[in-house]
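[Automated response] Your request has been received and processed.

Submitted sequence:
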Amino acid sequence: MPEEDLVELKFRLYDGSDIGPVRYSSSSTVAMLKERIISEWPRDKKMVPKVANDVKLINAGKVLENGTTIGQCRSPFGEFSEGVITMHVIVQPTLTKTKTGNLEMLMWALYLLHTMGSPILLMHLVSLN
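Generated structure:
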């Protein structure tokens, strides 16, 4: 596989720890990444995803869809071609998904507040609901 077809990724977990970095083919799908994340997830964490639908990946502020390839996820403004791309991982167990949309919005807002430390961002997210 030619070197330019590989993308180096790491996955930032909710507590600030990382999985990776690992090189992936740009044709790998988000669903494939989620399966890899689940298989490498540290078992000592409080929240452990059991299936791919328990995991959401965020890159450049966007939630990535399962059928999207890594090549399609790259920022149009260009990322450092030789750098590691960090994708953020949110664990949203299936049980939580069955509750109201307000709870889901609150979980997203708290996650973003924790990772980015911006109360303005938190207020913006809450106002979207």
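Summary generated for your ticket: Confidence is low (pLDDT under 50) at residues 124-129. Residues 3-93 form a domain with the Ubiquitin-like (UB roll) fold (CATH 3.10.20.90).
If you did not submit this request, please reply to this message.
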